[in-house]
Write a structure and sequence with these properties.
- It is a single chain.
- This protein is mainly alpha-helical.
- Helix content is 47%, strand content 7%.
- It has five helices and two strands.
- The chain has a two-stranded antiparallel sheet with strand order 1-2.
- A hairpin with a 5-residue loop joins strand 1 and strand 2.
- Helix 2 runs antiparallel to helix 3.
- It is elongated, with a radius of gyration of 20 Å.
Length: 171
């Protein structure tokens, strides 16, 4: 919000405020919004073939219109969750999808530590992409298939440095 305050020669004052929204990425650079057609098939629509469903990409942009760093790490997570969903549905690639999800979680934890953020930061933000990704019953079933395939396995956070997350050293 920008406020302009003026005082005339007689001492009378007046002010006016205007809110300006600046978007860091032009919406025209995003793939077309697929609308309700994004609900089928399981894999959804990914016109630009970047591994992120177009509806999820739009959702992430809406959540973080001015935060390129968060969009970058959330897009990484969206790719990881897409891999997990497809692995859960097919039973193929479960281990590599789990590794990507672990790397995403590690990147979120690294951000949390670097920026001294609330202890629940990573969990809260990651759940937003989870909701965008698993938005149909078929996708939830695929998520459950992925989680079931991991049942009984142990995993640890991937060891990453903040620079491994392709989000830079700082803001």
């Amino acid at each position: 919000t920008v406020t302009l305050s003026v005082t005339d020669d007689a001492g009378a004052t007046s002010s006016s405020s205007k809110t300006i929204l600046i978007r860091e990425i032009h919406r025209d650079l995003l793939p077309p919004d697929p609308g309700s057609s994004s609900l089928t098939p399981l894999a959804g629509i990914d016109v630009d073939a970047d591994g992120i469903r177009d509806d999820v990409e739009h959702g992430i942009h809406e959540l973080y219109p001015l935060d390129k760093e968060m969009r970058t790490v959330m897009n990484f997570g969206a790719r990881a969750l897409q891999m997990a969903m497809l692995a859960g549905a097919s039973g193929i690639g479960v281990d590599s999808a789990a590794a990507e999800v672990s790397t995403w979680a590690s990147c979120m934890a690294a951000l949390q530590v670097r920026d001294n953020l609330d202890i629940d930061f990573a969990t809260k933000e990651m759940s937003k992409v989870d909701v965008l990704t698993f938005n149909t019953s078929e996708r939830v079933v695929a998520k459950l298939g992925f989680e079931s395939a991991l049942d009984g396995t142990a995993s640890a956070f991937a060891e990453v440095n903040i620079t491994d997350c392709d989000i830079g050293e700082g803001v």
